[in-house]
UniProtKB/TrEMBL annotation:
Residues the entry annotates as binding substrate: 7-10, 66, 123, 127, 131, 191-193
Cofactor binding annotation: Binds 1 FMN per subunit.
Binding-site positions, FMN: 61-66, 76-77, 83, 105, 140-141, 185, 195
GO MF entries: FMN binding; pyridoxamine phosphate oxidase activity
Cofactor: FMN
Repressor found in the keyword field: no
Protein name: Pyridoxine/pyridoxamine 5'-phosphate oxidase
Reactions the enzyme catalyzes: pyridoxine 5'-phosphate + O2 = pyridoxal 5'-phosphate + H2O2; pyridoxamine 5'-phosphate + O2 + H2O = pyridoxal 5'-phosphate + H2O2 + NH4(+)
InterPro entries reported in the protein's UniProt record: Pyridox_Oxase (IPR000659), Pyridox_Oxase_CS (IPR019740), Pyridox_Oxase_N (IPR011576), Pyridoxamine_oxidase_dimer_C (IPR019576), Split_barrel_FMN-bd (IPR012349)
Function comment: Catalyzes the oxidation of either pyridoxine 5'-phosphate (PNP) or pyridoxamine 5'-phosphate (PMP) into pyridoxal 5'-phosphate (PLP).
Domain Pyridoxine 5'-phosphate oxidase dimerisation C-terminal positions: 172-212
Gene: pdxH
Family listed: Belongs to the pyridoxamine 5'-phosphate oxidase family.
């Protein structure tokens, strides 16, 4: 397998300063809409969430973006999970969207703030009952002896809550990542990619072109 011989050109498009929205959230909205409309991505809302623990050790995993506005980018998880513990110790996180068929990536850096009970309850109960029970059955990131142990715990909870509402586990909830910096990247010919960084400057956003 000769990985060094594998290469392709990036030439789908280019990104010019005058095309950019002054507001990075609007720029994100534009690209997200294009990503959805392209039908080239199976999970356009999937993003890598990177965290750093109290010992400065990084880790990352994919989560789904469930909403965004100027206050933040929201996702849901188990707050006792590995990522939840990291965020508890260090709320600075990075989000990354890898939209490779579009030759685009977006990076966002910010601090994660837990969502309130009302918002957590609303989203939790909007999910299919099976997913609600699965959230109850899984102590995310902890070891489990076997798939059978997990399945039988899930099946017994499913029976328990057959005719009643599933209570949201206190550990289950969302975070909103308040953005401090964005980068929009568009692949360019000969590896001369277009990169624009938005960084927060008081109430405004400063836009800087970065070298590829
Ligand atoms: C496409 C995709 C979407 C996912 N969405 C979520 C999600 O929204 N929330 C979540 O907690 N885990 C999600 N996961 C699972 C996480 O990647 C991860 O395995 C899990 O959250 C445990 O991570 P941790 O042990 O680092 O905390 C998703 C995985 C994939 C591949």
């Amino acid at each position: 397998m000769d990985l060094q011989a594998m290469r392709r050109e990036y030439g789908l498009g280019s990104l010019h300063r005058e095309q950019l929205e002054t507001d990075p959230v609007k720029q994100f909205e534009k690209w997200m809409q294009q990503a959805i409309d392209s039908n080239l991505l199976s999970d356009p809302t999937a993003m890598t969430l990177a965290t750093v623990d109290a010992q400065h050790m990084p880790s990352q995993r994919i989560v789904l973006l469930k909403g965004y506005d100027h206050t933040g980018f929201r996702f849901y998880t188990n707050k006792n999970s590995h990522k939840g513990q990291d965020i508890n110790d260090n709320p600075q996180v990075a989000l990354h969207f890898a939209w490779l068929p579009l030759e685009r990536q977006i990076s966002i850096i910010g601090s994660a703030v837990p969502l309130g009970d009302d918002e957590n309850d609303r989203y939790f109960h909007s999910r299919p009952k099976e997913s609600q029970v699965a959230a109850l059955a899984s102590q995310q990131s902890r070891p489990v002896e076997s798939r059978d142990v997990l399945e039988s715990h899930y099946q017994s909870l499913l029976k328990d809550y057959e005719n009643t509402e599933v209570p949201r586990p206190q550990s289950w909830g969302g975070y909103s990542v308040h953005p401090q910096q964005f980068e929009f990247w568009q692949g360019g010919q000969h590896r001369l990619h277009d990169r624009y960084q938005y960084s927060k400057d008081r109430e405004n956003w400063r836009i800087t072109r970065l070298q590829p």
